[in-house]
UniProtKB/TrEMBL annotation:
Entry keywords, A to Z: Membrane, Transmembrane, Transmembrane helix
Record field: compositional bias (Low complexity): 226-242
Top-rank lineage group of the source organism: Bacteria
UniProt region (Disordered), positions on chain: 220-252, 787-809
Organism: Streptomyces filamentosus (Streptomyces roseosporus)
Polar residues bias (residue ranges): 800-809
Gene3D superfamilies cross-referenced by the UniProt entry: alpha/beta hydrolase (3.40.50.1820)
Residues that span the membrane, as ranges: 91-109, 121-141, 184-201, 272-291, 303-324, 345-363, 383-402, 411-436, 466-487, 529-553, 573-594
Signal sequence annotation: none
Designated name of the protein: Integral membrane protein
Lineage: Bacteria, Bacillati, Actinomycetota, Actinomycetes, Kitasatosporales
């Protein structure tokens, strides 16, 4: 790369026609321009240091000299790895994993035909589940800071003495901060700062990654301004603005709608609502304890003040619910408006209520002493029950949508979204329960909170302890499906042995080589079993969550635990599971952050776990505004703009967009965004593509059989290469009578043993190096041929070159 060299013009002069361009898009894990173009000398054509288009230095002005290339295209590489990788601090995004997972559930709804209300209800339920996760995270921070630290530990002399930094809060010292209400007010800074940090990260990542507004359609095609017809989709109810009925218009798929990759208004609304919900949760925790004390005794603070503060919190919470339920995504038009008053006043009002709650709690109450725990048990039970009810309701809606338009390859018969939403709730519950339990264990020293005579503090709510105890049980339950998959994979590998030897006949069999190829093929097929693993885990989580609620209720009914550690068998088992789960969460948390940091700094580690992360952050933030940023809101408009600009300035040019792995998903999404006239001049080449195998099954409304068939019919031509050894890519399964799209399975390895042409052993490539297969060059040449024959200028140049060669010979 030559950064000192000024970048060439993004597009050549319009008079240079007849060129062919191949736009390469890399996949998960990223790649350098030099690797993609096979040349150490590259130059940036357009873009910035985050995402840009590169060419070989010698190809910088290739359109001006088409005679140099014959029928070969000029290669361009779009590098977008800067959107998903960077410094190690981005590993902190992994802490937002529950938010990312619940955002995925929004996009997993089954295909719907004429069910506008059901689709809207599905979106509302997912947004409510997402809101509950924000409240759960904030409530967990309040549990740690307000209850465990400020209320229990600072109120217990033994605990406060072991923690010298808590001495100024101790009741024994009798300082200004020693009163319980003032300790709670000071501790409220921790969850408040957490909510503020989440707001800041959401706002900052939007500005850095997702605020790139796509070019207006009229810049490219005045007759079709980037899908104006898409405004009349099947789920667009009601008449036009003037009251007349909607006119029939061609319908563009969802990913081709003008506003799909620009959700600024919704993200801003949800960010305001979730920020307000976080502040209100802290305010409720602070004011609730003070109000409960004031209602129980005659003190210096009138009870009406606490009632007024709590009434304001309830009223503001109702407004938050209305905002979350009122509006979803607006995709038919590029919605550039912002609800300025809502964005400013809603979080501001919640913050003002929090300030009032802090002032109210700080009022002097000399007779107030902290004992026991804060009333958090009911809060966490209500959240757990609410999440369970929402997930069950979501499952009912999703099943109804699936029955209306059943698609056999949809995962879990349409219940993929509810299952993933349940996993998000489980992640949130396990993380909050484990952190609370670990902090309690750390504060209590040698004792176990609430378990015996050595304990100095009561510990976290019993429900959080039971949620931590669920982890060992869940791991034990997972052993069954894992063992089943291991046995089935081994049997499949044995059955594949004779098939592989037949494919490579008449080469002599090699037992070791056959066994390795068979094992890789059988392992690659495990991807198709992932839905059932998710379903088993989600169902087990739902049942175990119900058991945790019942167990916490049982613990409340038991008058106390045996001080000497003995007790009923159920109680002993619960204690052991709780302790094991607590340590597993602590150990897993360390591995989680360390692995995430390594993944963002090490390309090989990033490739290992990158597919799951890149699938999660591919989708816009439609349910949770604090989820990690969506890189596709930058990458897809980049690709669409580049293709549209090149085809406009090269009227007779041929363009092939070539995407590998996740790059094929970006390529297909960008093609959907093109104007109709441009799309008909574009060829699509995908390889190692998860378009149908992952996206089509998990996100049927957007990548199901209907949208993929429409994509096939709208582009000029399409080829998809896949291997049986690839655990990610697969066929796209277009249901057209004569699709001609899938090419595969390709031979992998290319040679079974040593041959004259390939005298050294060939590697098993799996998901990588598709361009090393001769089928890749053949597919690209076929696409260029289908796009159109050589234009006269190119044919003449090639004829002159051949004549000159014969004359000199």
């Amino acid at each position: 790369m030559a950064p000192a060299t000024p970048p060439p013009p993004a597009t050549p002069s319009p008079e240079h026609t007849g060129s062919a361009l191949e736009l390469l898009v890399h996949g998960v894990g990223g790649a350098t321009p030099q690797e993609m173009l096979g040349d150490p000398r590259t130059v940036r054509v357009t873009g910035d240091t985050t995402a840009a288009v590169y060419r070989r230095t010698e190809d910088a002005h290739g359109e001006k000299h088409p005679e140099r290339y014959g029928n070969e295209p000029v290669a361009e590489a779009y590098c977008w790895s800067g959107l998903t990788s960077g410094n190690g601090s981005r590993a902190l995004w992994l802490l937002l994993l529950p938010f990312m997972v619940v955002n995925l559930a929004h996009w997993m709804r089954p295909t719907a035909t004429g069910r506008t209300r059901a689709v809207r209800l599905y979106g509302v339920l997912v947004r409510l589940v997402a809101l509950s996760l924000t409240v759960l995270l904030t409530a967990a921070a309040c549990e740690v800071a307000l209850d465990l630290l400020a209320w229990q530990c600072a109120g217990a002399d033994a605990c406060a003495e072991r923690r010298s930094w808590l001495g100024f809060l101790s009741e024994r010292q009798g300082g200004w901060w020693s009163q319980p209400g003032r300790r709670l007010a000071l501790a409220a800074l921790v969850p408040t700062a957490l909510v503020g940090l989440l707001w800041y990260l959401s706002n900052r990542t939007w500005s850095a990654y997702e605020s790139q507004r796509p070019l207006d359609g009229e810049d490219f095609d005045e007759d079709d301004p980037f899908g104006a017809a898409a405004a009349h989709g099947p789920d667009a109810p009601g008449p036009d603005a003037d009251g007349s009925p909607r006119r029939a218009a061609p319908v563009r798929p969802a990913l081709g709608r003008p506003g799909f990759w620009y959700g600024r208004r919704l993200v801003a609304r949800l960010r305001a609502a979730h920020t307000a919900a976080g502040f209100l949760t802290v305010a409720a925790a602070v004011s609730g304890a003070a109000a409960r004390h004031d209602r129980g005794v005659e003190g210096p603070v009138p009870g009406i003040i606490g009632a007024a503060v709590e009434g304001g919190i309830v009223l503001c919470a109702l407004v938050v619910l209305w905002v979350v339920c009122r509006r979803g995504r607006s995709e038919r038009t590029r919605d550039t408006r912002l609800d300025g008053a809502l964005i400013s006043y809603l979080p501001g009002s919640a913050l003002a209520l929090l300030a009032l709650a802090v002032l109210y709690a700080s009022w002097s109450r000399p007779d107030w002493q902290s004992s026991g725990t804060l009333p958090g048990e009911a809060t966490f039970r209500f959240l757990a029950l609410g999440q369970g009810v929402l997930v069950v309701a979501l499952a009912v809606v999703a099943r109804g949508l699936y029955r209306r338009t059943p698609e056999p390859r949809t995962v879990l018969y349409g219940l993929g979204g509810p299952a993933v939403a349940m996993l998000a709730c489980a992640l949130g519950g396990v993380m909050t329960g484990g952190v609370a339990q670990r902090v309690a264990d750390w504060l209590d020293g040698p004792g176990t909170p609430g378990m015996g005579r050595e304990a100095d503090i009561a510990g976290p709510p019993v429900l959080l302890s039971w949620q931590a105890s669920v982890i060992p049980v869940l791991l034990l339950l997972l052993l069954v499906p894992v063992l089943v998959l291991v046995v089935r994979t081994a049997r499949t590998a044995r059955r594949l042995g004779p098939v592989i030897e037949t494919e490579y006949a008449p080469e002599p069999p090699d037992e070791g080589r056959t066994r390795r190829i068979a094992r890789i093929r059988a392992t690659a097929a495990l991807t198709d079993s992932a839905p059932w693993i998710v379903g088993v885990v989600s169902a087990a989580t739902l049942l175990l969550g119900a058991g945790a609620i019942a167990g916490s209720w049982y613990s409340d009914q038991v008058p106390g635990r045996a001080a000497d550690g003995s007790g009923p068998l159920l109680e002993s088992f619960a204690d052991a599971a709780q302790a094991t789960g607590s340590w597993l969460i602590g150990f897993g948390f360390i591995l989680f952050v360390a692995g995430g940091r390594r993944a963002y700094k090490d390309a090989s580690a990033r490739r290992t776990i990158g597919i799951l992360w890149d699938v999660g952050t591919f989708w816009p933030r439609a349910a949770h505004p604090f989820a990690p940023p969506c890189y596709a809101e930058r990458a897809v408009p980049d690709l669409a703009s580049r293709m549209s600009a090149w085809t406009l300035t090269t009227p007779r040019g041929r363009l092939v967009i070539s995407g590998h792995s996740q790059g094929s998903v970006l390529a297909a999404s960008a093609v959907w965004q093109l104007p109709d006239a441009t799309r008909r001049r574009v060829a699509l080449l995908t390889y190692g593509s998860p378009l149908e195998r992952l996206y089509g099954r998990w996100f049927p409304a957007y990548f199901g059989p209907g949208p993929l068939l429409g994509l096939h019919r709208s582009v000029h031509c399409w080829r998809n290469l896949w291997r049986a050894t690839d655990p990610i890519g697969g066929p796209v399964r277009i249901g057209d009578p004569d699709p001609g799209v899938d090419r595969g399975p390709l031979k992998d390895p290319l040679a079974y043993g040593r041959t004259t042409k390939l005298p050294l052993p060939e590697p098993i490539l799996g998901h990588s190096d598709y361009q090393a297969d001769p089928a890749f060059a053949n597919a690209r040449a076929g696409l260029l041929e289908e796009l159109g024959p050589l234009v006269p200028r190119q044919a003449e140049a090639r004829t002159q070159k051949g004549t000159s060669g014969r004359s000199s010979g």
